[in-house]
Fold this protein.
Amino acid sequence: FQSPANPFVSDSSNSLFVDIESLQRQIDELSTFSDTPAPTVTRILFSDKDVLARKYIKSIMCQLGLSVREDAVGNIFARWEGYEAELPAVATGSHIDAIPYSGKYDGVVGVLGALEAISVLKRSGFQPKRSLEVILFTSEEPTRFGISCLGSRLLVGSEQLSEGLKEAVDGQNTSFLDAARSAGYAEDQEDNLFSSVFLKKGHYFAFLELHIEQGPILEEEGVSIGIVTAIAAPASIKVDFEGGGGHAGAVLMPARNDAGLAAAELALAVERHVLASGSVDSVGTIGILELHPGAVNSIPSKSHLEIDTRDIDEERRNKIVSGIHQSAVEIAERRRVKLSSFKIVNQDPPASSDELVINAMEMVSQKLNLTHKLMISRAYHDSLFMARISRMGMIFIPCFKGFSHKPEEYASPVDIANGVKVLALTLAKLSLE
Amino acid sequence: FQSPANPFVSDSSNSLFVDIESLQRQIDELSTFSDTPAPTVTRILFSDKDVLARKYIKSIMCQLGLSVREDAVGNIFARWEGYEAELPAVATGSHIDAIPYSGKYDGVVGVLGALEAISVLKRSGFQPKRSLEVILFTSEEPTRFGISCLGSRLLVGSEQLSEGLKEAVDGQNTSFLDAARSAGYAEDQEDNLFSSVFLKKGHYFAFLELHIEQGPILEEEGVSIGIVTAIAAPASIKVDFEGGGGHAGAVLMPARNDAGLAAAELALAVERHVLASGSVDSVGTIGILELHPGAVNSIPSKSHLEIDTRDIDEERRNKIVSGIHQSAVEIAERRRVKLSSFKIVNQDPPASSDELVINAMEMVSQKLNLTHKLMISRAYHDSLFMARISRMGMIFIPCFKGFSHKPEEYASPVDIANGVKVLALTLAKLSLE
Ligand SMILES: [Mn+2]
Ligand SMILES: [Mn+2]
Ligand SMILES: [Mn+2]
Ligand SMILES: [Mn+2]
C-alpha cells in the first residue's frame, strides 16, 4: 500500500484537499434540473431535465480530462487511464435520476462525489496503476418503466431485461426505445442492441459506491462512515383487481364488488404480513394505489397497487411475498372481484460486500481518523447488481434524520467531504492492488 | 285536461309518434364528443368536447324553433312560448356531462329525450298554454370542480356557491372563471356575475326530469316507467392525511407514519359505518384515493380520499358522516399521521316530488297503458335542487342490469320512447294547468 511511486497515498492522506464548496455548488446546480419546484427534485429517466443533467455531468467529466463512453441504455463511463491499463479497472459510481418530489443527495453524492474524488487524486499528483472509472448508471429508480437499477441490471448481463426492454413502455405508452432514442441512446438498429451493454465478470477489479445512508443510524450514533457489508434483497409486485363498478348512489352495498376496497384491504394485509415476520429487518410498502375511473360518485371498477418488500433474509422476504399473494387471492374471492394480475416484477437475492474492499475501506477510515462502523444497506443500490460481476463495497455517510426520497433529504458538507476522502483513498489503494 | 284547443292530448296519445331512430342517432352522435375511446364516454365540464357537445345540443334546439338563452355558468334554456306566456313555465331537462369512462345515457336521455318530447308535441299540433322550457344543466357531475349539480344548485340560489365559484379551481389549478370563459361563459365582470343565475321560487310552475333508473328494479320487475317520489340525500367528504414519507427500504416499520395506510383504513371504515346503519338504503363509496408522491419505493407522505355517502333518511346519513369523521381522527392518532383536512363538501337534504306532478305522471302512464311504479331515486339529480324552487317530478326508465357510470350503461329504444311519451304528455298536461 505504501508505494514509493505514490507519495500521496503514504504521506498526505490527512491533508487531502476536498473542494467541498465546488462539490456543494455542483450538487445544488444539479438539483435545479427538476420537473418540480425546489426544494423538491423530480428527474425522470430520459426526460428533458434528465438529458440536461447528463450533459452537465459529462461536461464535468471532460473538464477532469477523463475519456467518456456511453452505452446503448445511457450508462455513462468516465475513465482515467492507469499506467497498467490492461488490468481490470477499479470503478465507482451511482445514479442521478430522482423519484417525484424527492431530494438532491440520493445517488448524486455518489456521482459528483466520485468525480470530486478523482479530482482530489489528480490534484495530489497520484498516478493510478489500474485505471479508475466513474459510472453514472441509467435509472436506478424504477419510476418510469417500473424497473429498478435498469442500467446496472443490464450491465451485469440480464438477458431477460435485454429482451424485455425491446417491448417495455411507460405509463403514457411511450416505448423504452423511443424514450432512449429521444435522449440520444439506443440508436443502433442491431439485434444485440441491449446485450451490447453487458460486461463480463472480472471486467472490473472492484466497484465502490458512495451514498447517503438513507437511515438514521450513523447520525444517531455520531459515526462518520458506514462500511456496508451486505445489501438487503428487494422484491416488487404489481397487483390489479377488477370489479363491477357502477353508480355510487344506485348500486346497493350487497350488490357491490368494489375493486378499490379490495386494494385497501390488500394494502393493510401487506403491512400485517411484514409485521408478522417478527423481524425489524422486514419492510413492506404500498407506494402506488390507483383507482379507476377515479370519480367521487363512481364505485371503483379497477384498482392497481405496486408493492415493495425487502429483507436482509431472502427466505423470510419470499415468505412475505407468498403471504401477500395468498391475501390477494382470498380478498378477491371474498369480495367477488377478479384478481386480474399478480405480477412479481423482481425478486432479487441480497448481495455481500467483498472482504478485500471492506478491509481497504476500514484501513482508509482509520488512517483518516474517521469513526466508522460495519452496517447493512436496507435500500438497494446499483452495487447490488455490480456485485454479480465484481468485488463490491459501499461507503455510507450520515444524513439528516435518515430522511430520503423526500425534499427534506440532507447531508452536511463535512460528512460529504469525509465520504469523498474515504472513496478517494480506497480507489487509490485498490488501483495499486 | 281534455282541452278542446288541444285535441292531441285527448285523442291521440296512443298514436304519439316518437322518432326513436332520430333520437337514438342523436344519442350515439353525442357520445362521440368524448375524451376517451368508445364505448366509454368522458365529457368533462368546459373541455373542448363539452363545448362541442353544447353546440350540438344548441343546434337541435334551434332547429326545433326554440329560443335559446345561456346564463353565466352555462346553463342552457330553450323555450317554446305558450299562449299565456306570462304564466310560470313548465320546465324539463338534465345534464350531458359524463364522468371519466362512463356511458352514453346518464343525463343525455333527459336532454335529447326532452327535445324529442317537444318535437312530438310540435308534430302533434299541440299548443302550450304555459311556456315549455328544456334546460341543459351545467356540471351535474362533480368531476372537475368537486361540486355536484353545479348549474342547478346555483340556479336555485346558493349564495355560498355563488361566492365560492369565484375562487374555485380544478385539479390542474385552472380557475372556474378561466374554464368558464374559455367555454364562452362568465364573460361579464360584474359583482353579481354568478348570482345573476339565480331564479326565484315560483319561476317555474313545475320541473320534470326524464332519466335512466341507474338501478336494477324496473328491469327486474318488467315495469316500463318509474315515478320518483323522493330523491336520496347525498353527502360528500374530502379527506387528507399527512405522514412522514421516506424511503421504502430504509425506514423501518416501527418508525413509519404512512399516510397511504391511513387512507386504506379509512376506506374500509366507511364501508363498516355504512353497513352498521342496518339499512339497505345506506350507501358509501370511496371513488378517489390518491397517494403522494406515488412511487413504488416511497412511503406515501400524503393521501387524499373523496367519499360519497347517501341515504333516503337524512339523519341516518348524517350519523354515518359523523362516524367517518370519528374514524378519521382515531386512525390519524393511532398511526401518528396528521388529519390535515376533513371537509364536508356538501350534505344536502333529500327532496320529495310534488303530488300534482306525481298524479299527472301516473295518469299519463295509465293513459298510455304503460306499467309503472312509485319509487325512490338513490342517485341524486338536478331535480334534487330544482325541488327547492318548483314543483318537481322525475320519470325513470329501465336500464340494462341497472348499470350506470360505466360503458356498459344501456337503455333500449323502446324504453326510451316510452319515457319520451310520458314526458311529452306530462309536459302537455301541466302546460294546461
Ligand atoms: Mn433512491
Ligand atoms: Mn440511490
Ligand atoms: Mn351521473
Ligand atoms: Mn345523471
Summary: Chain B touches chain A through 71 residues (CB under 8 Å).
